[in-house]
Amino acid sequence: MSLSHSDSYSDRYRVLPGAALDLDAYDADDRGPYTRKKEAVADLQALREQLRALQERFYAWDKRSLLIVLQAMDTGGKDGVIEHVMHGVNPQGVQVTPFKVPTPEELAHDFLWRVHKAAPARRMIGIFNRSHYEDVLVVRVRNLVPPDVWGQRYEQINQFERLLADTGTVILKFYLHITKDEQAQRLQARLDSPDKRWKFAMGDLAERKLWDDYMAAYTAALSQCSTAHAPWFVVPANRKWYRNVVIANILVETLTQLDPQFPQPEAGLDDVVIV
Ligand code: AMP
Ligand code: MG
Fold this sequence. Notes:
The chain is an alpha/beta fold and 275 residues long. Helix content is 45%, strand content 12%. It has helices spanning 9-13, 37-61, 78-85, 104-107, 113-117, 138-141, 147-166, 180-192, 202-209, 211-224, 240-258; strands spanning 65-72, 94-98, 125-129, 169-177, 232-236.
């Protein structure tokens, strides 16, 4: 699949609201217009510089928030996106929230309680490393609540995201699409490498066995919860360098369209002399 110059990355990888979704039809090995990794790495560098400048204006503008949701199977690259795409953006304007197995206190509340608390304030970019979607993914696959409970959550999520969008949050949701073979290689690499081994959890193997169930759960979540105000993107992620370029492009396209402006300075500053 090649990307023509007229396609935006946002249009190319967005899940259309209400459309039937077949994840198998998405090529995880997609490398877009690139024949060589080197070209993509150079483009990523330029995109990061654009992102840095856009984020500076977005922060000063102080009118909207941006929420980035990252979901993937284990080893899919959520941490890598945060490290490599956001590299260079002023940390003061970014807030990363990882979502783990809920605590007893979190479980004693509705599933969106902990999520809403982590929603980015105006002028901030919030990144969710996993998210409320775990409540229709692992929770569904593992039968952690009955089907009639998780079954209601798609609509509840849409309404929650509608509220965030209506009150000024721009929402972008990325599913990092890797193949089961690629996951095998990455899990093995984690085992083999002393500086990656800490990321390996025995539990990851149990989840890997449920791969097909997870794909069904992802399909349901992406097709039912991709909306105009909170779109899902299926990001080809077998190649880390292409994954990063796709996400960086979508962020730059989105922020460029928002066109954040530096606020008007106070009047009369031209005559001020600092003594
Ligand atoms: P990691 O992101 O690798 O540190 O792992 C976090 C773990 O927390 C994953 O196994 C997730 O599936 C799990 N997790 C996150 N949110 C939930 C949730 N709402 N219910 C159950 N498990 C969750
Ligand atoms: Mg893990």
